[in-house]
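ok trying again, last paste got cut off:
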Amino acid sequence: MLELTGITAGYDRRDPVVRDVSLSVGHGEAVGLLGPSGCGKSTLARVAALLHRPDAGTMILDGTVVRGWRHRAPQERRTSVGVVFQQPRLSADPRLSLRELIAQPLRATGRRREVPERVAELSSLVGLSAELLERRPHAVSDGQLQRACLARALVLRPKLLICDEMTAMLDASTTAALVAVVEAYRTESGAALLAVGHDRVLLERWCDRTVRWGERSVERMPVG
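nice, full thing came through this time. structure:
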């Protein structure tokens, strides 16, 4: 499903935060990427999500070599990946209601007719009431906003879901609820998962296998 080989990436070519890193996620597989804050794992996640072009290396997504990132990637490829970030308030437009936030990818891809059904289906799945859907981000909690961000990530039915520290700011009950939503979606769709974090216990319980950030590569770490 996803193959990253020899990836070097960052925001300054003279000092990349990711150096010669390789990682793979098979079809339907859940892989946890474990590493301390600041090691570069979020940058690697952005590369995998087609949001950041690497300086070097190769990425294969669903059997095809990726040659374009962000808007240079074909729409079909961009929409095959869903991503949920650590800080929902930085990834949500404060002007939009939660309903519009969830619907945004459908509208952007010309699928407006699907909005009522998909928003209703996903808001129920993530536990958002009709009243909460009409609120804007400033009027809901971090947990409620992250529920909407997860629904947004799932609205186009991605084949690969990337959760970059998705639960780092959440309490235990909300964490459990959102992990359950991800797993329900994966069971129904067969989607693969890359879960990035620093909580080893959570990743080992959640994922089929966990890999540890290495100095120059991502090394396999036994689960259990």
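cool. Confidence is low (pLDDT under 50) at residues 219-224. Strands lie at 2-9, 18-25, 30-34, 56-61, 64-65, 81-84, 160-164, 192-197, 209-213, 218-221.
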